Amino acid sequence: MAGKDAARVTVLGLGLMGQALAATLAKAGHAVTVWNRTPGKAGDLKTQGVAEAADLTEAITASELVVAVLLNHDSVHDALDSQVGVLEGRTLINLTSTAPSQARELAEWAKTNGIEYLDGGIMAAPHMIGTEISSILYSGSARVHEDYKSVLELWGEAAYFGEDAGMASLWDFSLLSSMYIMFSGFMHGAAMVGASGVTATDYAKRAVPLLSAFIPTIDHLAATVDSGDYTTDVQHLDFTKAAADAIHRTGVEQGVNPAMFEHIKNLIDRHVANGHGAEAFDRIFESFKNPAK
Length: 293
Ligand code: NDP
Description:
By secondary structure, the protein is of the alpha/beta class. Helices cover 51% and strands 12% of the residues. Strands 3-2-1-4-5-6-7-8 form an eight-stranded mixed β-sheet, sandwiched between helices. Helix 9 (167-194) packs across helix 10 (200-214) and helix 12 (237-253) runs antiparallel to helix 13 (259-276). The structure holds NADPH dihydro-nicotinamide-adenine-dinucleotide phosphate (NDP). NADPH dihydro-nicotinamide-adenine-dinucleotide phosphate binds next to helix 1 and helix 4.
């Protein structure tokens, strides 16, 4: 290995994710040093040639590149505020999940203290790190992303979203929002049939093909909301309202918590009441964009 490919890397935080990131680097031949607030978590890594630092200062001093993968925004400050002098002149890649505003705050904190900063949002579970289905989103210093790309790509795709350090986590949490709502939708439906004795496993046998068939239509939905033109000659909101009323009624009759579907039904009702019944269901996007609509 040469240049940044041979970088010494320090990983701060040995939760499940920190362990996976450190192990992947060690497997690729990097000299890896780790630190964890609670000592004694480096066991398996040490058999892979990873060095466990005696303390945080020693861990940071060991490498030009420091990767933080701690619990949350507060834990990054808890751990690193006392270390700014040691971090000065080094590169910090923060893969801890933080809100965009918190990532921007950390980027400013880093700049003030002479630390090169790249923020990251991990779109993978620990067991996926280093496989082709792993992706990490980055924003902040373009130079850090470019210089260390070969290191970052060991963990998975290393997508870059610009100098604004908040953009990676904005993408991260926007994508996760879609995912959580999709899974919650499955659970709502499973509870509806579940009240009549159907198992979630049996429900999934029909839900998975149905949802899979519809997922590709998201591209069409995206083009519609980007255009702002909701005219349609197929299923318009008046039609959808009839279906939504029936779905909602069924949920209530089955005794499930109606709140999540009720929110969608209320948006449909509002757009119909506002005279948009002939337009496409996609129009409710306007209410997500602007809650007053
Ligand atoms: P864990 O809960 O397994 O580990 C959390 C780590 O943070 C531990 O090393 C813990 O140390 C440390 N920590 C917590 N508070 C502090 C503090 N105040 N000061 C110093 N260290 C602290 O989490 P993961 O490893 O799974 O996740 C780490 C980050 O990666 C999180 O931000 C998470 O959102 C993100 N992520 C995780 C994914 C996953 O599937 N696991 C997926 C995508 C992102 P100690 O052992 O001493 O408690």
